[in-house]
Amino acid sequence: MKQLRSIKGTHDILPSESNKWQKLEAIVNEVCEQYGYHEIRNPIFEGTGLFSRSVGEETDIVSKEMYSWEDRDGTSLTLRPELTASVTRSFIQHNLGSQSPIHRLYYIGPLFRRERPQKGRQRQFHQFGIEAFGANNPEQDAEIIAIAWEILSRCGLSDNANLNINSIGSRECRNAYRNALKDYIHPYLNELSETSQHRFNTNPLRILDTKSEKEQAILKDAPKISEYHTQDDSIHFESLIGFLRAMDIPFVINHKLVRGLDYYTRTVFEFNSLKLGAQDALLGGGRYDDLVEALGGKPTPGIGFAAGMERFIIAMEESGLQLKGATPDIYFVCLDERGIASTLNISNKLRRIGLKVVLDPLRRSMKSQLREANKLEAKFALILGETEINDNTVSFKDLEKGIQKTILQSEVINFFDDLTN
Ligand code: HAM
């Protein structure tokens, strides 16, 4: 029979890996809560229209990467390819805007995009991200970038990451710039790739994203979007730059950064890792001041980012960060069937005082059990054999220091309480 295997572009996160994920998630939870952001958990699938109306029909994500299907009642459903749209839908649906003028949300979860799998790029991948609704002032942008920076720092990644920022301006600015850019590109149209020629008609700003050296050379003297900023766009961007400097967050202004999703307005940013290969974008985000209204809510500004967790973990490993999993405090060796009930009972009590206790349900020999205790790097062993059962005692062994003691079974909890406090 053909062996069953996971689908191309998906991965099992085995226990030997999951401790790294838990570590990253713990950092994300801690930093977000420190800034007053609270977790939101959205469904894995949504109506397809949500993504075409927010991310944009013409984007790569919507036009070729979504996992969509027709449900039995004919509704078109899609596995979420990103979470800003879902969070915004949820913000509108639950009328969160009427409860408080500011909503600070964060999330951790799986996403689905049918891309060509490679290192750091999967079809099921995971993001953590944040979204803040309600404030259009630049200190909100600064806070969002500061949270990203803080998480990167606590993961040991800030030394090897570059922050690129840009402002793609308000709608007014982009309309004027789009025309100017098209006028500039028009004479070179035949020299552009098929993708860029298509983008010329659908979303010319995305041509700035090109990886082709030839196209980059053509774009060298293209007009800059900053030349088309309204006065408010410029004040917003200049203030943000001032706040980033005040927080000592290093950045580079990249006039060509536009990002691949349609909902952005004004500030856009990306952190790239110097330690990853082709898929070097660790995290990306920006402002989306028109999105809530576009999806049917009251006009409400918003800004956020999302980070690729697989890429974070690869970069954390390459930075040599200690990502070892938790080891047991106690390995409880039981060598006599009559002692099993006491072993279970004492172990539970030890766990209740906060210790990690591992047992052997295979009834193996003392030698095998102690070998496993060493393999798991347990700090202590407790041994319950025939002699101990007859004396109502248990033998204690410090596996690091080699010290041995006999303790009354009734005293075990107090003994560990003293030892570990
Ligand atoms: P995005 O740039 O599409 O933005 O994705 C954010 C991050 O997710 C990327 O920088 C990358 O690290 C990771 N990522 C994307 N696709 C894959 C993949 N196929 N495999 C592995 N990692 C991937 C968004 O998703 C926006 N919703 C971000 C945002 C939030 N903007 C405002 N708020």
Briefly summarize what is shown.
With 421 residues, the protein is α+β, with helices and mostly antiparallel strands. The protein has helices at residues 15-34, 48-56, 60-65, 84-93, 96-99, 138-154, 171-185, 194-202, 213-218, 231-246, 291-294, 309-318, 340-352, 366-375, 386-391, 412-420, and strands at residues 38-39, 45-47, 68-70, 76-79, 103-112, 124-133, 161-167, 252-253, 265-273, 281-287, 302-308, 330-334, 357-359, 380-384, 393-398, 404-408.
Report on this model:
- With 421 residues, the protein is an alpha+beta fold.
- The chain folds into 2 domains: 15-170 and 230-318, Bira Bifunctional Protein, Domain 2 (BirA Bifunctional Protein, domain 2); 330-420, Rossmann fold (3-Layer(aba) Sandwich), CATH 3.40.50.800.
- The protein contains 16 helices and 16 strands.
- An 8-stranded mixed beta sheet has the order 1-5-6-11-10-9-7-8. Strands 13-12-14-15-16 form a 5-stranded mixed beta sheet, with helices on both faces. It has a 3-stranded antiparallel beta sheet with strand order 2-4-3.
- A hairpin with a 5-residue loop joins β3 and β4.
- The longest helix has 20 residues, at 15-34.
- The mean pLDDT is 95.
- Histidyl-adenosine monophosphate (HAM) binds at residues 82-84, 113, 115, 120-122, 125, 127, 129, 131, 261, 281-286, 304-308, 310-311.
- Histidyl-adenosine monophosphate binds next to β6, β10, β11 and α12.
